[in-house]
Every structure is written in structure tokens, then in C-alpha cells.
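Table S7 (text form). Paired inputs.
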Amino acid sequence: MTLVFATNNMHKLEEVSKILPSTCRLLTLRQIGFTDEIDETGQTLEDNSLLKARAVWDYLQTHPQTETIDGVFADDTGLEIPVLHNQPGVRTARWAGDEHNDAANRQKALRLLQDKDDRSARFRTVITLITAKDNAGSETSPIAAQVEGRVEGRMAEEEKGEGGFGYDSLFIPDGYSQTFAELPAETKNSISHRARAVQQLSLLLL
């Protein structure tokens, strides 16, 4: 099965590739020639995930590929901090500005939480899969399905760890004393929000 993962983020691609069945071959946006900027104008993670998947699906209908593509999936991830009214939410990647600046985002989180006793937080990932084949392999009208993965935790008081990306050096998942950036990749990939969403995606592909 060949799927397009609506990303050029190699961190995400590596993480997802380790979780999906080995029978799945993933293509990035770059590999299918998709260069358009997708405006993430949705008000929720569900909205943005669907927007991205639909944009890539529509592109494939007018730009035939050299190989059969069985479906498209896109994810949208948000960090929700209850004491900050669930910010940054859909603005997670651009919280400190329109540029994807992970370091600035982390510093903003630390600054806003500086005097807060409640440092609880959660990560949510929503994945939208669009495919035109049913489980028996027959062609059907395009179908969109959504799955979600989440992990509860808390925000550290300072950055710790060298691994991961995004807010990984600040987020400590429940049941652990280390941040995602300190945990071995295998551990993070088994418990993260994206891992849990991709595990649900795998069930859709069976």
C-alpha cells in the first residue's frame, strides 16, 4: 500500500514510518511534486487535518503519478495548556510568530508559565485519511476518516534533553520523570500523541 503523508517534515516522517505496518510505503509532498502552501485556516485540529488531506487529494486527481497511490493522510497536532486557556492549540507551530521557530515557541511557554502552579498539559494529534478503496480493495467514492491520539502530562520548568523536536524538551508525559526529548526514541514512539494516532490509523488500513 502506498500512501502520501501530507508533510515534508522528516522528523514526522521518521516517527510515523516506524509505527505503520511495513507493508505501507510513504511518500512526502515533495516526492509527488506538491509545492503549494496550504492555508491552515481551520478553528480546530480536526479542521486543519481535513483541509490538508483534501488539498493533497485534490492535487493528485489532476496530477497523475507514475505509481498507484492508495490514499492520503494528514495530521495536525496541538499542545493544550489548561491554565493558558488551552493555548497554543491550533497555533502550536506558530505560537511565537508566523515562522516555525521551535526555540521561540518553547521560550514563550516558559515565560507564560513562570508564575503558574498548574503546569498540566496535553498533546493531541488528529489524523485524516482519505482513500478511494474499501477494505476489499474495490474502488469507491473518496472517504475521509479521522482518528485521534492524545497524551497527558505537564510542562517542565526548564528545557531538558537533546532529542525530539517542537516542545519535546519541555513536555513530561504522565508516568515519567523525563521529557520527550530525554526519553529514548523507542519509548517516545510507543506513548506519544502522534504514535497513538498512527496506531489508530493502522487499524483503518487493515
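Next pair, protein 2 of 2.
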Amino acid sequence: MVILFPDNPDPKFREVLVLVRPNELMEKWNGKRLRIKEAQAISGIKTIVWLDSLEGLLQPWVHLADNIYLDSNENDRKASLLRTREYRFIDEMRSRYPLHNYVRAAKILKEMRAIKTAQEVEVMQQAIDITDNTFRRILQFVKPGVMEYEIEAEIFHSFLSQRATGPAYGSIIASGDNARILHYVSNNAECKDGDMILMDFGAEYGGYCADLSRTIPVSGKFGRRQKTVYNACLHLHDYAKSILKPGISIVDYTNKVGEEATQQFLKIGLLRKSEVKNEDSENRAYRKYLYHGISHHLGVDVHDLGTRTEPIKAGMVFTVEPGIYIEEEQMGVRIENNLWITKTGNKDLMKNIPITVEEIEALMKK
């Protein structure tokens, strides 16, 4: 753990990194532990304290303080009924020091975590470049008869061969009608000639995530209807990128993309004007074919922490991932890139990854 106490009378203990003490016997079983100089070099923190000696130091520090900031899980998407390590530590501290004022560190960390520095984005770009190379490899690998899990295995192999930690999340390899299942994880079907494959995957590198979605034809060439739907989704993708700027909230942004989706779905024959005219404002007509959000925060977690109601700010990183899912045609398309918000707009960190029908077909033809 890290302990920050800027008011500590002893300057040496104002910033402390707590680690497990190395034990040569245990290292034979569990691997090497960091030594003091190694930990200092990695973290930049000069004062290293071993966990087994912390208790004698922590008590006098706590007695000097009024407020104790403790971390907790405040990710809206990740709840747990089990008492995690963080909450057990909170219980322990409250029991030992009941008269102190306890404050949520997570609220501060959430705001800090949402804004990425240039150095953080540089690491994310590495994860994205690894994902780019992997996608190009997959375009050469896919053909009729290949199994979804074989594609997943190629992705995993490509990630590891490029020194990624591994996948940032469970890869979605959804061919044919499986593409309409947003979190499809079975990955056990055969990819058939004439179908498309929706692939949602990303590498983790240096603790940061990439998150890419592409939809490609199994045969290497889009059918006429497939091309029409794909280009409608690409239009929505480009439109969403054009309005994702500082000042807009995710709620307003999603509503605007919904308006554009309505027009596209009318254009490609998914909706009739009467359906739009008589739609329920709480369940709009376009939601039949696009039933998920358009963007989420991205960073050290694939669904990273950050606001969904306040105006977005420069430095945030978002996915942009509209989709079109048509039950009647047993078809699903999703196109996803990762964008870094700048002061005046955004920077597409995946701008070099093939995305158009023509680019995909040309690379698959090779």
C-alpha cells in the first residue's frame, strides 16, 4: 500500500511505500520480491516500509492525524457482495481508531484517474499498437471453417509475442447471429462462408488497456447488404467522433448519436417514419437495433472510472463504439476506436487501424 501523510512531523514518513518483506525460502515457491533499491527505482518513493513492521509505525501516525482517507471500490460497473481486501481494511481501521474522521479517497482518485497524462496515453498507445498488429494478423488468418476459439487463440498468441500482459478483457469473437449478443464469450462456433464476425478485443500493456471492435466478412468480401449496414455503422462512428469534445456530457452525446442513428436506420430500411413518429420517449425506436451506450471511459480498466453526467474534460480517454444489431437478418456490426479528448476536440489513438470496407477487403485478399 501507499501511505501519504503530508503533515507528518518527520519528513521521511510523508510518503511511504509498504511492501512484503523478501524471504529467500518463500521466493523459491512464489518468485522474487522487490528489494528496497529496486522499489525506490520503480516507484520514485524513497521510504520503503515492510508490511510486518507497519503496525508499530502506523499507530503514532494515526494519533497525529484527524482525517483518514481510505480507498474503496467506487466503479459503478463492478459491485461485489463479498467483503474485499479494501473493505476488510476499512473495517479494521474503524475498529481500532473509532473516533477519527474517515473520508473517501476513491472520490479524489476517481477524478484524478479520469484525466490521463501524456505519459499514460503513451503507454495506452503501446497497447493499441499491439492490438493493431494483432488485428492485421487476424485478417490474414480468418477463412470459412475456422472456429471462433481458434481466432481467440491467435489473438492471445499475438498479444504475448509482443510483450503484452495479455488480453485487457475476455475477447468476444462472435460470428453470424452470435454478434447480436453484446457480451458473447462462448467463442465456440464455426465461422461460416457468407457470415460476418464481430470481434471485440484489446491488449493490456503496462497496466493500461486497449479496446477495439471490428466486424469483418468470413469470406474476405462483404455482401451488398452487409456493406450497407457496415457503412451505416461507420457513419455513426464518425459522427460520434465529431461531437465527442470537452463540454458535452455523455448523456447529451448519446442522445445526439441516437438522433443520427434514427436517420441512418430510416435510410437503410430498419425503421419506418411512423415508428419514429409514434416512438416512446423512454424507449426510442432506434433502440431496437442499437441497445447499448456509445462510449465509456478507458484506462487502467477497460471500463475505467469517470463521470457519465458531468461535462467531459480534456485528458479523458473514451471508446467510441456504435453498433447495429438486426435480429431479422441474424446480423450484428460494431465498430470501436479509442479517443483521447484534447482541449479543442479529440485524437483518435486507433486512426491507423484498418476500418473501411475497402481497407478490410484489401488486407483479407492478401
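The CA atoms of residues 221 and 358 lie 9 Å apart.
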